[in-house]
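Fig. S4 source data, part A: sequence.
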Amino acid sequence: MRAENFFKRYGYVFNQSVSVQFKESALAALTENSTDEQEILGLYDPRTGWCQIPHERTLHAKKIFGCLNITKEFHISIITHEVAHRLYHLILEQRNKVVSRALHEFVAYVVQIETMKEPEKTRVLNLWRGEVLSGIENINTIVWALNPNRFAIMAYRFFLRNPAIMQSILDGKVKSDDYDQ
């Protein structure tokens, strides 16, 4: 619901449900599509449209954003992140477009952090203080791949400084240079 409400603010309403599958173990949800299971806390599979998330209890030993213990609110934010991938994918399908993995992650991270409740949101924003993407050209696979956790927070700060960017991205006005999906 959080992700749907976020997209509603930009004029996007969905008449299709999103399928979320909860797995008993993090390994069961992650091994099929993961190369680094320590960093991935959920999956969206664009081939099937399914979001796969480990149960909260199976994530107790993992960290979100690389260093924070996973609370119930953080678990909800992981679900929101994966659902945001699905909803953005539906928007792209309507336009018959494909975008880079980094642009997909940018949207999902912004939705995740923007819809997060306190005190978790403040804890996230206290990481990598002052760092922000310097421009739209930094929404690329290289910057994302170097440190996805840092990219998430820098992306959200970029969004805060440039709130109109989200409407441009969702409307297909931002070009994606590296098509790796």
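Fig. S4 source data, part B ends here. The first strand starts at residue 19 and ends at 23.
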